[in-house]
Backbone:
């Protein structure tokens, strides 16, 4: 057992390091001798703890004690009940002013809490050095009328080193967007915790209609953090976002632990978690089921990436479940600042179109370097294409233009992106459809190295043909092995392809292929 996060009122614990989202076997838990019941997940959280108190958590299987964790909760300066500030929580009254007042009044080290109830709100703004807790049965329900939302300007001239203040963001560009249900601008040492729910209620408004069209401003999120640091998001359920669910940008030292993110399968661009130009991000024990990519790692479309050169880096994703969605973990396509040192381990992916999905294209720029991406000890079920690297992604208005999609070698210049080393180790993928891997590099800058080691791919008997990469001219694939185009070095070590049709490796314009059993 290992402690993952601790506050005055909560503690998240890793119960089974060898599990994925689900533990290898259930355990019975007790806290200070009081039975809590059975837990089947690898990551578990405790809430309603007392500040500045000693606790002992024990795990047993039958009569055998298999784990013990002792911890001491942090102190707390005060606790502010939003109902004392006028919040009603009946789902009808507008509780925005009352909750915002409580947040603004809370002193450092204090906690604002919402008891059980339905709190109808517009966007709320977070403050440094405090905790916001949504207790079990508490739901923040976002109002549907966009006319009542504040707008975050994309860029404002400022007397600073950059000459501008970036606030709003839309798909990698500094553009006006509506504020999120919970917005943090330049805050630090913040905890957003609890067993409650943040509900965007997007289906009640017009957010999912003409989703790419700017109406007043672009669609907001459920949580947006800009220029923030040392933030913990723990235990909460997020659902029905107007657009991306959780979007931290230009922020660092962020923990997202034991959360769930949900959106209908047909909801547009409702990515689960999109860190953009962030450093030091941990996502542990999270569950995603959304209408787009479960996790999408980004660093700007072009302007911000080229000017600020802030990669998204040092990302650790573990013991998570990515259920459905276009991609389990995606890099790009807005990644002009680069993405590096990403580790995805001990995760479960089920029903996704793609497991690991890298998306870039000509025009992303010389700082758009994707390198050191590792998939380790991942279990996949019914993932159509477990590994897809696509350097000819046909996004943006000019995505189908000849200069973007051409297979002719073009000059390497300031617009050329780079994909470095991608590793895929100890991955089991059952029920594959299209192929085990589809790798499409650039003719002028092939993918540097792709390694598959100790992996097994089994194919579904009822699989249907699919184009694994969204690029012009990509063939439909069905139960194929590893397809590689424009790669410097491709290595397979102890890779089993049970039920593949045709050659295990279909490589063209690949510098070196190594396939050993």
Residues:
């Amino acid at each position: 057992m290992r402690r993952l996060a601790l506050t005055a009122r909560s503690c998240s614990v890793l119960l089974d390091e060898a599990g994925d989202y689900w533990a290898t076997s259930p355990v019975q838990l007790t806290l200070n001798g009081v039975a809590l019941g059975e837990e089947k997940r690898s990551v578990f959280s405790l809430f309603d703890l007392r500040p500045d108190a000693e606790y002992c958590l024990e795990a047993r299987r039958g009569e055998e004690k298999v784990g013990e964790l002792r911890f001491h909760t942090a102190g707390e300066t005060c606790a502010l009940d939003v109902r004392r500030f006028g919040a009603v929580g009946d789902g009808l009254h507008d509780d925005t002013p009352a909750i915002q007042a409580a947040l603004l009044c809370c002193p450092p080290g204090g906690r604002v809490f919402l008891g059980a109830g339905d709190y109808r709100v517009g966007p709320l703004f977070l403050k440094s050095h405090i905790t916001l807790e949504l207790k079990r049965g508490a739901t923040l329900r976002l109002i549907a009328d966009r006319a009542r939302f504040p707008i975050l300007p994309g860029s404002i001239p400022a007397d600073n080193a950059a000459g501008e203040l970036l606030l709003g963001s839309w798909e990698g560009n500094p553009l006006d967007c509506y504020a999120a249900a919970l917005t943090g601008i330049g805050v630090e040492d913040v905890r957003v915790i609890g067993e409650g729910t943040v509900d965007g209620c997007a289906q009640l408004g017009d957010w999912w209609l003409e989703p790419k069209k700017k109406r007043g401003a672009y669609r907001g999120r459920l949580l947006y953090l800009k220029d923030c640091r040392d933030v913990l998001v723990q235990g909460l359920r997020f659902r029905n976002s107007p657009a991306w669910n959780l979007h931290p940008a230009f922020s660092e030292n962020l923990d997202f632990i034991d959360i769930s993110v949900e959106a209908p399968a047909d909801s547009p661009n409702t990515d689960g978690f999109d860190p953009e130009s962030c450093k030091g991000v941990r996502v542990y024990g999270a569950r995603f089921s959304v209408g787009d990519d479960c996790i999408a790692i980004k660093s700007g479309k072009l302007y911000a990436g080229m000017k600020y050169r802030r990669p998204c880096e040092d990302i650790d994703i573990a013991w998570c479940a990515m259920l459905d969605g276009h991609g389990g973990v995606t890099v790009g396509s807005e990644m002009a600042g680069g993405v590096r040192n990403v580790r995805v381990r001990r995760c479960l992916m089920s029903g996704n179109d793609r497991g690991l999905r890298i998306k870039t294209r000509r025009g992303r720029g010389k700082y758009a370097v994707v390198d050191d991406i590792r998939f380790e000890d991942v279990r996949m079920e019914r993932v159509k294409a477990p590994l897809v690297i696509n350097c000819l992604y046909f996004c943006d208005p000019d995505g189908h233009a000849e200069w973007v999609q051409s297979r002719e070698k073009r000059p390497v210049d300031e617009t050329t992106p780079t994909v470095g080393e991608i590793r895929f180790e100890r991955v089991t993928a059952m029920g594959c459809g299209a192929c085990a891997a589809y790798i499409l590099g650039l003719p002028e800058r092939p993918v540097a190295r792709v390694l598959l080691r100790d992996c097994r791919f089994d194919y579904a008997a009822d699989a249907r043909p699919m184009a694994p990469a969204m690029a012009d001219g990509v063939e439909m694939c069905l139960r194929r092995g590893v397809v590689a185009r424009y790669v410097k070095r491709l290595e397979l070590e102890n890779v089993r392809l049970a039920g593949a049709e045709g050659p295990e490796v279909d490589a063209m314009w690949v510098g070196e292929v190594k396939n050993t059993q």
Q: What stands out?
A: The mean pLDDT is 97. Residues 96-105 form the longest helix (10 residues).
